Amino acid sequence: MKTVYIVRHGKAVPAHANIADADRLLTDTGVARTCKIAEYMTESKPVIDQIIASPAERAFATALIIADKLGIKANKVVSNEKLFTGDESDVLEVIEQLDDSVNSVLIVGHNPIITMVANRFADPKLESLPTTGVVSVHLDTEKWVDLKKAKVIQNFTVWPGML
Known about the structure:
The protein is of the alpha/beta class. Helix content is about 30%, strand content about 20%. The protein has helices spanning about 30-40, 55-70, 80-85, 90-95, 115-120; strands spanning about 1-10, 50-55, 75-80, 105-110, 135-140, 150-160. Strand 2, helix 2 (about 55-70) and strand 3 form a beta-alpha-beta unit. It is globular and about 45 Å long. The two termini are about 30 Å apart.
């Protein structure tokens, strides 16, 4: 059994000409909502073996906050450019290429791609995964490469507005 947590980064400062998109920071609200979601997640005592985030500041910061609140060492948080510049198939490929010794992964990315990835597994489907929204599923497989054909068992879907 494998577990995937698909997370949209927290609320970030608006895009504008004076800052590169990758450098946009989380707002205070984004930090607070990310903490709220992480606290919700701690109730189920998740065991997360790996966290992979987009290298964009807002996504990587979201991953670090969640890791901290869940007691996961920061060195388990890595970035992958495909989560920032890639498409749905690129994100799925990042997951499929995980070592099979990893049983659970938390992925932090951006809309609209992260909603597309979440909707590969979520039931019901989401129009748009809200900021700091999480879709968690168990996959009935022992191999990440079998991700697309594995039976999906819903774990939870949550976002700050639900709490």
